[in-house]
Specification:
Blueprint lengths: L1 H24 L3 E9 L2 E9 L2 E10 L13 H17 L8 E9 L2 E9 L5
Parallel strand pairs: 3-4
Antiparallel strand pairs: 1-2, 2-3, 4-5
Family: Belongs to the UPF0102 family.
InterPro entries: Restrct_endonuc-II-like, tRNA_endonuc-like_dom_sf, UPF0102_YraN-like
Protein name: UPF0102 protein H8700_09145
């Protein structure tokens, strides 16, 4: 069981690195990776023009029955939003900082970038 957990972590890290390279090619400036707080984790935090962007990276092999996008459930979105609020507070960002939530969904060999994939009414 422990080996499976390590292998999944390695796979996740590799796909997150692919997502970072993809975002950099699009002109994003990466400022943090794998930000953790008690509310959850954010895979990538970047700047895109005037936005602070919190990016969730989801990978699914083609064999999986659920898509990578479906894996970003409402509950997962809430964790990301709460984690983003922690990040903003801990790093002294003003309350009116323009933020958005993107998702990079990797399904097999296909990468899809959903800009502003979901919104927070608390920010």
């Amino acid at each position: 069981m422990e080996k499976e957990k390590i292998d999944r972590r390695k796979i996740g890290t590799a796909y997150e690195q692919e997502a970072v390279l993809f975002l950099k090619q699009k002109g994003y400036r990466i400022i943090a990776r794998n930000y953790y707080c008690k509310q959850g984790e954010i895979d990538i935090i970047a700047v895109d023009q005037n936005y602070l962007v919190f990016v969730e990276v989801k990978y699914r092999s083609k064999k999986k029955s659920t898509s990578a996008l479906e894996a970003v459930t409402l509950q997962k979105q809430r964790h990301i939003i709460r984690s983003a609020q922690c990040y903003l507070y801990q790093n002294g960002y003003p309350e009116d900082t323009p933020c958005r939530f993107d998702v990079i969904a990797i399904q097999g060999d296909t990468m899809q970038h959903i800009v502003n994939a979901f919104e927070s009414y608390f920010m």
